[in-house]
Amino acid sequence: MLPLLALLCVPSLIGIVGIGIVFQSLKKPRQSKAVIELEEPTMKYEAMRATQKSLLEGNKKRKRSQTIAEREARATRLLLRSIKAELDRNESDDLKLLLEQHTAKHAKQQNECENIELSIQRTNEDIRQLNKRLHVAETKLSDAKVACAKRRKVEQARLRNIGMDDENHYNIAICGASGTGKSTFINCLRCLHPMDPGAAPVSAGAECTSQTTRYMLDKHTALWDLPGGFTEAHPAETYCADHCLDLFDCIVMCYTGRWCEINTAIVQYARQHKTTLLIVHTKTKQLVADEMSNRQLDDENEAYLSLQMTVVQDVEDKCRMNGVGNPTSPPVFLIESRNLMPGGNMRQFQEMHVVESLYRCTAARHPDGLSADELWNAAKEKYFPVPADTVRPA
């Protein structure tokens, strides 16, 4: 009983954490990579300017305190002279006690003035050192802005070359090894059959996508069907750079259980360029059937949960072996692409979670200013002809 409970709970936690990571990382609109690289020197410079301002304001307050302290010390010193003069004329115990008290008070005031002066001097030295660093930082920032402008021009040329609009569209790359169901996944997300007008061409057992092609999911979300990698025409070594994966807002890597060089290349490239990555196993139904047959199980749910743990663990192990493991292992979703079609069982595996992730992430750049919840609620009407009651644990 306990192992079964573990199977039921652990995948749910994995999926919930995975989707949380996706929503967290996708909640902001994409910025130009050139602009992103400019952020660090800009933040450093602004932090130093804020420190400089704080030091200068602190010294102003200290100087005001110093002026007040010096004024009080002068008043005490004049009073001491008067007491001493009076003592010369008429000695008394009361005057001696008063002299002793004001002498101690004057010494304390003098000490306070000296401490304030030392503090001002130290702060002035800090400001001088900071000004030197600020000059260096300002020069670096100026150089970075020039480099950013040049890189942005190059980036815009690359965007024009592949026909990508990075200002008005949220661009999602659908990529992976040849034969992993990328085009089918796109068609099913768009609720199109292969023979419908505008559908991505598909072919059983053969790679039919020869060049990067854009398909609109809605008026502001573009799905890009990339050619399959790890082939003679699209080798893993140059696949990511050749297809400009660094320009996309999000990368969806289709995967069917066979990890190869192209998967490692995509995961490493996404991490290098800080691009959100989702790994989607697109052919889960057959995998579950094989699991039931191999383990002689009658319960599909038990086979799925066991398989989910195995697939997620396998992906994490592969990522870790290639230097991109936890805590940066990308979230993994197990789906059957055809379940996304009208009439399909969106609750069979994790289809609902993948669609929710993709729709919610586009909210940051929606032209009508719709929230993530509003976008996802609208999408439910498309994928769920009747209200969803229960879904598989994520």
Structure overview:
This protein has 394 residues and is α/β, with parallel strands linked by helices. It has ten helices and six strands. A six-stranded mixed sheet has the order 2-3-1-4-5-6, sandwiched between helices. A hairpin with a 2-residue loop joins strand 2 and strand 3. Helix 1 packs parallel to helix 9 (351-361) and helix 7 crosses helix 8 (300-321). The chain is elongated. The two termini are 21 Å apart. Mean pLDDT is 81; it is low at 1-30 and 388-394.
Topology:
Blueprint: H1 2-26, H2 33-89, H3 93-162, E1 170-176, H4 182-189, E2 213-218, E3 221-225, H5 236-242, E4 250-255, H6 261-272, E5 276-281, H7 284-295, H8 300-321, E6 332-334, H9 351-361, H10 372-383
Helix pairs in contact: 1-8, 1-9, 2-3, 5-6, 7-8, 9-10
Summarize the structure.
This protein is of the alpha/beta class and 394 residues long. Helix content is 60%, strand content 8%. A six-stranded mixed β-sheet has the order 2-3-1-4-5-6, sandwiched between helices.
Structural class: alpha/beta
The outline comes out as elongated
What's the total count of β strands? 6
Helix content: 55-70%
What is the percentage of strand-forming residues?
5-15%
Q: So how many helices?
A: 10
What is the average per-residue confidence, as pLDDT, rounded to a whole number?
81
Alpha-carbon Rg, integer? 34 Å
Most strands sheet: 6 strands, mixed
User: Reading side by side through the largest sheet, how are the strands ordered?
Assistant: 2-3-1-4-5-6
Order of SSEs? HHHEHEEHEHEHHEHH
Low-confidence stretches: 1-30, 388-394
Q: Termini distance?
A: 21 Å
